[in-house]
Specification:
Number of helices: 5
Keywords: Hydrolase, Lipid degradation, Lipid metabolism, Repeat
Protein name: phospholipase D
Shape: globular
Structural class: alpha+beta
GO molecular function, one term: phospholipase D activity
Radius of gyration: 19 Å
EC number: 3.1.4.4
Order of helices and strands: HEEEHEHEEEHH
Distance between the termini: 19 Å
Largest sheet: 3 strands, antiparallel
InterPro entries: PLipase_D/transphosphatidylase, PLipase_D_fam
Helix content: 10-25%
Length: about 210
């Protein structure tokens, strides 16, 4: 999760009046409005921000930046490191716990239906809520590098931020409602309870 990520960028989809343009700003605003927000983040063991030791980490997950941004904000966060099987060698355990992994990405919210009733709505997909991930169905490679994709360019092979081509993303995202949405909530709740040193009611949060 990268808190400065801009959620709406296309001119055809204006940001609602008063809504923060960034992910982090939106979450903080919702907390101030009385919404309970809990976030489960990947803890990159190679990133540090303590005293004189400051490193981005091998995977550039921005976990230390998120830790600082959400501190004392009312947004409840848990950072979960990746642990390898103790059957592996010490070296392999360090590799598994450090490098990238296929991990779950979901957003779960409660939404209002008829009357005062609420329902669970879940969103799952393959892209992180992070920098360098924004894309459109057109997958533009050269156009709008200085506007829509400004400061959100991703090309791990060449440093061509201004001229392109940018690396496009082609993935699938789903909006899920009904009983299946509760399955996603249960999955999140189980992972949260396993990793959290202190307990926040996930059911109350959504």
């Amino acid at each position: 999760v990268y808190h400065p990520v801009k959620l709406v960028r296309e001119s055809t989809k204006p940001v609602p009046n008063g809504s923060p343009p960034t992910l982090g700003g939106l979450l903080k605003t919702k907390v101030q409005e009385g919404v309970r927000v809990i976030v489960f983040l990947w803890d990159d063991k190679t990133s540090h921000d303590k005293f004189l030791l400051k490193t981005d980490g091998l995977m550039h997950t921005h976990d230390e930046e998120a830790r600082k941004f959400f501190r004392h904000s009312g947004v409840h966060c848990v950072w979960a490191p990746r642990y390898a099987s103790n059957k592996l060698s010490i070296f392999k355990q360090q590799v598994v716990g450090t490098l990238f992994t296929h991990h779950q990405k979901c957003v779960i919210v409660d939404t209002q239906v008829i009357g005062n009733n609420r329902k669970i709505t879940a969103f799952i997909g393959g892209l992180d809520l992070c920098d360098g991930r924004y894309d459109t169905p057109e997958h533009r490679l050269f156009k709008d590098l200085d506007t829509v994709f400004k400061d959100d360019f991703h090309n791990p092979t060449f440093q061509v931020n201004k001229s392109g081509p940018r690396q496009p993303w082609h993935d699938l995202h789903c909006k899920i409602e009904g009983p299946a949405a509760y399955d996603i909530l249960t999955n999140f709740e189980q992972r949260w309870r396993k990793s959290a040193k202190w307990k926040v009611s996930v059911r109350r949060a959504v």
